[in-house]
Amino acid sequence: MTATLGQPAWIKAPATLAVFDALEAAGGADCVRFVGGCVRNALIGQPVADIDLATRLTPEAVIAALKAAGLKAVPTGVEHGTVTAVSARQPFEITTLRRDVATDGRRAVVAFTDDWGEDARRRDFTLNALYAARDGTIFDPTGHGVADARAGRIVFVGEPRARIGEDYLRILRFFRFAAWYGKGPPDAAALAACVALKDQLTGLSAERIAKELLKLLAADDPRSTVALMAREGVLGVILPGELNVARFEGLVAVEEAMFEAEAVLRLAALLPDDQVGAAQVAGRLRLSNAERDRIVAALGPGPELKSWLSPREIRRALYQVGPQAFRDRVKLAWARSGGTAATAQWRGMIALGEGWTAPALPVTGEDAIAAGAPRGPMVGQVLREVEAWWIDQDFPADRLAAIEKLKAVVQGMAL
Predict the structure, then answer these.
(1) For the segment 14-43, what is each residue's pLDDT rounded down to a tens digit?
(2) Are 249 and 339 in contact (CB under 8 A)?
(3) Are 369 and 351 part of one and the same domain?
(4) Does 132 lie in the same domain as 103?
């Protein structure tokens, strides 16, 4: 029996139909099909985010067809056959059927083809080498994609070493898809090939590795996959040095309880409590400044967070490190405690942190000067001492009391 996706909303959407109509007007029926992730996810009942299409039309013909239909065409990767159509403000990535002419493990030289089977043979995994017509009929050129997708088997198209040799990033993609879609033990031939060729990852750009790693860590539950990567030495190639797999696993358990999955924090959980080392890892991976700063702040020293802290102590810690770092540190402390212990207390800490806005110190440098502090370093010294008193008093909003304290501090320093 021929597999079919039926007619889910994203297939029937006017924006989708407009793109199909434009391309079929230029190339005839069966010149375009859905491909890859949208087909796979719809088949196994997972959400469909991006809609990718494959076509027999050349990139130039695709651009002309879209423009003739009044749709925007963006040449996002024409040299590799990719054009992005924009229909009703929604992007559709359209790629001409291809075959590899030359590969070196990092990039490929491609030639265009009109053979669906040839295009399928250059794809990475069988569950990604699936196509579907606009009526939902699925085409499975490898003969195994539908069954593998349904069974959660991550299997390379053809010989694993050959597929990996075309692009070594496929090693990380294997583990990423295992984390997202895999069920049961990994395919033995695929795993063996990934492990044998793992050192080739060092030749890839940091940006490509980081992007794939963060996608892997964003899976609902990547614990077994990360543990497998650690055992087989793959994780150590991209994250050399000592790793805190136990804390990472605890964090995933915490996030399961909170219905969250934050890849950047999960990466931080894997790293040692070493801000300098964490910054170096972020630099090697070419993470964004925001990602680097978040990881470094999450792994900072003190204040020590325990589930039994009082609201007053929680506010003090929150003021000291800021809301994002506080939340991250609470989750990491919770993860270290076992991931499921004292759930109500840890949740309460996070809730208090989200519901409390740190007030501003009710006195300023001008107040210190008015109290007799000379302009210069002494003003900052006075304010720091007053701020320490203010924090210890649990952030009172009493400006008069703060000014009296400021005066006392100035007088004490003058003696």
Answers:
(1) 999 999 999 999 999 899 999 999 999 999
(2) yes
(3) no
(4) yes
